[in-house]
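ligand=zinc ion
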Amino acid sequence: MEFQVIGKDINSLQGEALVVGVYQEQVLSPVAARIDEKMSSLLKDFLKDIHFKAEVGECVFMPGHKEVKFKNIIMVGLGEKEKLSLDTVRQAAAAGLKKAKELRHKEVCFELLGEETLGDETAKALAEGVELGDYQFDKYKKKEDEVKIEKVKILGEEKLKNWLELGQKLAEAANFTRNIVNEPGNVIKPADLAEIAQKLAEKYGLECTVYDEERLKAEKMHGILAVGQGSAHPPRFIHLVYKPQNPSKRVVFIGKGITFDSGGLDIKPEQYMKTMKCDKAGACAVLGIMKAVAELKLDVEVHGLIPTAENMPGGNAFRPDDIIVYKNGKGVEIANTDAEGRLILADALIYGSALKPDIMIDMATLTGACMVALGRFTTGIFTPQEELAAKIKALGEKTGEKFWQLPLDDDLKEELKSTFADIKNVGSRYGGAITAALFLKEFVGEEVKNWVHLDIAGPAFLEKPWKYYAEGATGVPVRTMVELLREK
Ligand code: BES
Ligand code: ZN
Ligand code: ZN
């Protein structure tokens, strides 16, 4: 999609569709004045007749008129003016774009906020809303006379161009992640994820090393090997590096890459197994972050680590009661083969610690318990570093990706006590998201000053459309993580 900034004079404009924002308080003193005096009363009556409430994202259209020079005018609700936020802008932009598409336009012009602006960030949010809202995973559907919006025009000053571009790149990185997450388990196996990483590395000049089974054995990555051993498709470990000239810091991202989680021998019941192609969302987020970092040429050294396996109950599958000894000497008793994510992440956390990062962040669709605690839309933050948690949460308020911190309560460590090994991989039902995080913490080296675990089990993959997201993968938390790297 091409973004274009055009002057501010709406009267000099013409085109296919015009999208105008309407505040709840101003439904009856609309927009129309911003477009065309003559149109004003017409629009007022129309909005009144249809009881337009101007709720966020609510959308109606009216055919244009010869002096307005647009074929259709799309009015989109912005809700209460007081509550206007960047996420309102994303939602409104997405809704306007969808309506324009429905009306089969190829080009759309946005005049969302009128005289109001939220500053440059508004343009960025608008571009994000448009790109995220336009996304759908339809490659396996036959296309019949598909419409594509080719051009998006924005009324405003030239300098907005850079902000639109930034928003577009962030959203494209998230959409790149979504495309991989949405691919099913028969299409993406661990080796395929590695191939995608290698292609990405080639395109952007990143370093990329892929560890196959033999190399995994040599490196004592016993968690990845155990989880992968029941599948016909062997596991991998992927290490991507983006290294600029004079990096300001070194950050390691780790993503859970279970290409399908059947539960293993502790097999999942059918209603829980469905959608488990999403269990690679953390890994795909790593790929999206690497893409964005390279596109934006950030001055941070970034390592992307992906442990990847398919969790299957094959003849060679790992079992309950099995004991794995990790490279750091810790023995882990398997209490449940469905708690596999923490087992593969443990190898990556040991490996990541050795890179001596300033910050290490792991992202994983780790526990159903986190969804029980926080709902479907919120990522759980677990970290001993309170400031970092606060920073991520605050960034999320801007990006529209929601985060909430849960405690790393050491008292719950007792849950992981094992009779036969140092720890076991699950505790009781209670505090399941926290005990998972406590398990991970056991594998973070003492030299790592800042470590954060993000449980994205809820928001990474939606069972119904929400805001500007279609059903399926969302790309969470790619945009927030890139914002974190962009911060000085
Ligand atoms: N991949 C799941 C967690 C998950 C659940 C992700 C729902 C996305 C949506 C994970 O591997 C898992 O199975 N966790 C178990 C842990 C339990 C066995 C302690 C769970 O949450 O039930
Ligand atoms: Zn599982
Ligand atoms: Zn899993």
